[in-house]
Each structure stands twice: as structure tokens, then as C-alpha cells.
Amino acid sequence: MTKLISIFLIISISCFAKTDFSKTSISLDYAQVIKVKTSQRANGSYCFDVTVRHNDTGWDHYANEWKVTDMKGNTLATRILAHPHVNEQPFTRGLCGINIPKNVSKVKVEAKCNKHGYGRQSYVVNIKKKY
User: Fold this and answer.
1) Which class for 116: exposed (0-12), middle (13-18), buried (19 or more C-beta within 10 A)?
2) What mean pLDDT do residues 2-30 have?
3) How many distinct structural domains can be found in the chain?
4) Exposure of 116 in the CB half-sphere (CA atoms within 13 A)
5) Which CATH number characterizes residue 22's domain?
6) Domain span at residue 14?
7) Which of 53, 55, 58, 73 has a Cα-to-Cα distance from 29 of 20 to 30 A?
8) Sequence-distant (≥ 6) Cβ neighbours of residue 11 within 8 angstroms
9) What is the rounded distance in angstroms from the CA atom of residue 76 to the CA atom of residue 74?
10) Does the pLDDT of residue 1 top 60, yes or no?
11) Are 23 and 121 in contact (CB under 8 A)?
């Protein structure tokens, strides 16, 4: 059963993103984006629900931010994470009102911690536009 769940998770994650693990440590000392859910509002803006995993130990070392960038690295939105999530791992936080330019069809979502910064691991999301 555990093997089936692991296979399902690997297949599920690979359907959502292409992650380049060669440029980063996959250690939980670095904040990692493990899931992203997007939805577009009638006004054309987007909501992102981002699930982050990290070895939060308290105020001295915790995941403190995630951001959305275009594929050229331009920041489109930043979500500040205001406190440690020591006993809540992984955790999901959302942000709405994100405007994605019409010519952008893919974005990257990255998380950082207050000790190591961004781990250079990107979660790539295909943007589906309704409006």
C-alpha cells in the first residue's frame, strides 16, 4: 500500500510541475514548494494556494516567504509567511489578486526560509487562462 501511495504521489507531482533538482539541495533545511493550485477570477487575476514543506525549528529558522515569478525571473507576487509552522508540516497558504501578463503561459513558484534564502528549486506551473 505504501508503495502504491508513493507511486501515486510521484505521478501526481510530475503532472503539475517540472522541477530541476540538479541546482539545489532537496534537504528540508531549504523551504520546498510541493504543490500549487491556481484559479482565475472573473476579473482576470489569479489565486495561488501554495503548499510548502520545511524543517521549521522556530523563529530562528522557518519558511518565511514564497513568490511567483515569470520564466525570466520577474517577480509577479510575493506571499510573506508571518510565523514558524513547527507543528504544521507541510502547510498551505494562499494569495489572491495576482496579475499575470497575457503573454505569460508558465510561472515559477519558489519558497525561502529566513536562514538559507531561496533554495533555487522551482515549481513550474502552466497558467490556464479563462478570461
Assistant:
1) middle
2) 44
3) 1
4) 21
5) 2.60.40
6) 2-126
7) 73
8) none
9) 6
10) no
11) yes
